[in-house]
Task: inverse folding
């Protein structure tokens, strides 16, 4: 039986450190790794954390400061996404840490120097907006965390036409498309994904073990998914591929 006091302590530790190994938790609390896994399962079922490869991680809500989690995966995904971008293109850049990794890759690329970027991510706008040759458009709206949300943002995207939308997601575990957790973000992400000629999702491997409540882009409407294959997501990738999505593994 799970110990509620220990579970609360584990969650507090994860809130502070973001990512902790099962072995470390086992030693700290003087219980077996199996007991720790049962505790973590309780937290995961409550939607507070996710588990991966011997670690427990706090469930991030697409914050760009979470780049350190799966950092190498996100950099590889960003490098693959960079190959789709040419000078003078127009891009929608969604919020999220993996899309932010692409933003950094674009800035560092000597081959991409002139871009039109539309984003509802304050952090991406602030970072890319200081780069000569990058024309960044940011809609008005209400601030939620690092994002702009609301009716004004949704209406803004209705009048936009871009070449590519680079999209993030809360997760895609056992659902029909890309998801988001907060209702205020739903319309924004729907409109942002719809205004591009091509839609490319950038998902690290953690996105296959969690999901949001709201689907904003069905897989059938997605052109490409760039991600990392693990033993746990192979079956899901196969199902997504059967819906016509071009999957790029890095």
Result:
């Amino acid at each position: 039986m799970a110990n509620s006091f220990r579970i609360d302590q584990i969650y507090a530790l994860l809130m502070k450190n973001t990512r902790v190994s099962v072995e470390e938790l086992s030693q700290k609390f003087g219980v077996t790794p199996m007991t720790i896994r049962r505790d973590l399962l309780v937290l995961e079922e409550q939607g507070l954390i996710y588990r991966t490869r011997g670690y427990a991680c706090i469930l991030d809500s697409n914050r760009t400061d979470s780049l350190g989690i799966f950092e190498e995966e996100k950099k590889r995904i960003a490098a693959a996404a960079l190959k789709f971008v040419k000078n003078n293109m127009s891009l929608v850049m969604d919020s999220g840490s993996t899309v932010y990794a692409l933003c950094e890759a674009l800035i560092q690329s000597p081959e991409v120097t002139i871009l039109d970027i539309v984003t509802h991510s304050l952090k991406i706008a602030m970072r890319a907006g200081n780069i000569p040759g990058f024309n960044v458009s940011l809609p008005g709206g209400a601030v939620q965390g690092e994002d702009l949300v609301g009716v004004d943002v949704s209406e803004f995207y209705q009048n936009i036409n871009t070449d590519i939308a680079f999209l993030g997601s809360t997760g895609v575990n056992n659902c029909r498309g890309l998801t988001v957790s907060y209702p205020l973000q739903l319309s924004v992400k729907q409109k942002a994904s719809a205004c591009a000629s091509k839609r490319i999702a950038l998902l690290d491997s953690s996105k296959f073990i969690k999901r949001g409540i709201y689907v904003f882009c069905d897989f059938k409407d997605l052109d490409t998914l760039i991600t990392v294959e693990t033993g746990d997501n192979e079956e899901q990738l196969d199902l997504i591929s059967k819906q016509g999505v071009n999957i790029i593994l890095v």
